[in-house]
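Example 4.3 (complexes with small molecules)
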Amino acid sequence: MGALPREFTSELADVIGIYIQCEDCGRKSYWPSFKVRAAERQGFRTVQALGSRFQCHVCEAQGGGGRNVTLRLVLRGQT
Ligand SMILES: [Zn+2]
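Answer. The structure with zinc ion bound is encoded below.
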């Protein structure tokens, strides 16, 4: 990731949660808002960039990549 202009709007600003589902084993997990905010503080500005952070630890532990995960965003005002 390169440096972004200061005025660049974070795509994550309206994201208040992320559901993660592994397409291989069906395991589901959820990232609450505080984890999204923490990722923002680490410099993540897009879901695509953040996507590299998500993987299935069950499949990974079994020798798979654990990368076949689907993300569903929960946006502010959507609930
Ligand atoms: Zn899995």
